[in-house]
Amino acid sequence: QFQSLQLEREMCLASNCTLARVNLSLRPRLEDGKASLAIKYQELREIREACWDKQQRLEAYLENWSPQSALGQLQAKLDASEAESEAQIEQFLAQDLPLGSFLESFCQSRTRSHICRTQLEKLQELLQKDQVGRDPAGPAGDPGALASPARSRLAP
What we know:
By secondary structure, this protein is an all-alpha fold. Helices cover 85% and strands 0% of the residues. The protein is rod-shaped, with a radius of gyration of 39 Å. The termini are far apart.
């Protein structure tokens, strides 16, 4: 019985020695795998940071170029053009501006105002249609119910 235990012990030692050699032979592969994994994690961090930066830029871009932002910019442009027309009229009435140059600059200013007003109205209509399309419970048959406060300023 002692001899069988001794034999079993030697077999276990030989098996352990063989397993140890196999494990040691696999160590370079393990180290390469660890290094490769570290590189992949670094690439993942860089990609995550790049995605985060792009997402921030996209959010800023969408905020600057949203339909509501465009509406505000058009309204500001229209207000500036209207103010310019009023200033030209005042200059002409004060006889600070000759008739020829007044007519030319006033026509250009009014043309810009008209274009801005038309673009603003069209954009408002599109936004209203989009809003009605998304909100089927909106007011039916009441076209003035969706008009924005900016539109009421546009009335002549």
